[in-house]
Amino acid sequence: MSEDANTFIPTFYSHRSVFITGGTGFLGKALCEKLLRSCPNIKEIFLLIRPKKGQTINDRLKKMLENKLFDLLRRERPNSFEKIIPISGDVSREDLGLLSEDRKMLSENVSIIFHVAASVRFDESLKDAIFTNLRSTRDICILAQSMKNIVALLHVSSTYTQSDKAIVDEVLYPLEDVDWRKTIKIAETIDDEILKIFTAKYIGTMANTYVFTKRLAEQVINDFSESLPCIILRPSIVVSSVNDPVPGWIDNFNGPMGMLIGGGTGLLRVIYADSSITCDFIPVDLVIKAMIIVVWKRGIQNFSEDNSLQIYNCSVHNTKSISLGQLIRVGFRAVYDIPLERTIWKPQTIMTNSSLLYYILVLVLHIVPALLIDAVLKILRLRPMLLKLQQKIYISNRAISYFVTHFWQFNNTNLINIFENLSAANEKDFGYKNSLNFDIEEFLRRGIIGSKLYLLNEDMSPLEQARVLRHSKRTTLEQETLRNVRSVYTQSDQIEVDEVIYPSLEDVEKV
After folding, report:
1. What angle do CA 397, 457, 263 make, to 5 degrees?
2. What is the 3 state secondary structure string of 250-308?
3. Which of 121, 157, 163, 272 sits a CA distance of 20 to 30 A from 475?
4. C-alpha radius of gyration, the chain, whole number
5. Which residue has the higher pLDDT, 230 or 467?
6. Which residues, 6+ apart, have CB-to-CB distance to 158 below 8 Å?
7. What is the rounded distance in angstroms from the CA atom of residue 193 to the CA atom of residue 40?
């Protein structure tokens, strides 16, 4: 390895082949874009993509690259997309569902792995969560062991996998009395129905199957770190970008933007949460920089001299703090100034940590209006939809309730040290100070604009018309309201999750 590669991050990635799981998801897309733009001499990026009904892996890659995230790269270096090579596979299947020829190609060429893919549905069955989150991690490690040029394996976890501790340090926290090998074997051999009954006892104090399996996956990485250069990166709740490559980019309804969009459209009237709780939100562009940097740091070290597992909490602890109550208030100021076109009710969300009050308000503000509007839809011979959507919102809110009623402190000394010690040459493209030097209110405004542009596909030009609509009577035109309801519902039905995503209002897709 050249001396320049030890000091300049793009040089380290030059002429290297990278393998990414979860590449079509939120983090995966942003990682691909940043690698191609900031490390232009990277040799190739292999993306593990799951074929879907009616869509080949090439179709899915083409759709991914149409995302507005890639517009800057498309203008500056359109030929760079040729470096992305789709690989057919599925992390929920044994051996990642790889064909033998693809496995051989990866083994011969890849030197860096970013394992991002996972299921984050908080109501996921234990069997499916074990296969997708735990067994896939084992299989990634086995694949990495066959790679003769491997220099770094990054496993993306979550700070919330340590949710049974109030203070989370950058160390491994093993689950006592639970063996990951036996857990995989149980999922492979025990009947689904029996395992469902067994789930609550097996996961113990863990909040859900996601937290449980991701926690065990860290133990897998730890055990394989004796023979592989491994890294665990634990992002907190990943939100829209600060500025790289564009401000406010987001591609899902997760986290605070989901709450603000739901409230801004008038669909989310009440949420079960503690308004005084301070949640740790981290911009996606900062997470991507951290991923690229920690891999570089591990890759330039001699593994024979240091085979320790490196763990980083990717959070903004004590840097940018805002309570959920403040977030809603500040966010709605932005929504009032930058209204959403599909508003069906005055933007407002009530937050309560009283279960009884929450149930009452859900009935009054969610269920009753949904029944009335669905009745109108039936009269008009249209498909009723709002009650089903409110059921999804309710289940989602209950699924994340543990995370919005508890506080954690995520210490991030290791990560900050790496950022602080970047050279001036690396600071320009990979520094964190510019990503953290932002005003919370301005950041949320950009997030609302980003949600309009990248999620709802709304035009920013007719803002004045939207303001008029917002301040008009609640039912100015019945048909227009019904169209808005249908449009919002359609948007929510198109959400796709195939990577690591954190506590959100869209974690549960199935009613």
Report:
1. 30
2. CCCCCHHHHHHHHHHCCCCCEEECCCCCECCEEEHHHHHHHHHHHHHHHHCCCCCCCCC
3. 272
4. 23
5. 230
6. 211, 214, 234, 235, 236, 500, 502
7. 50
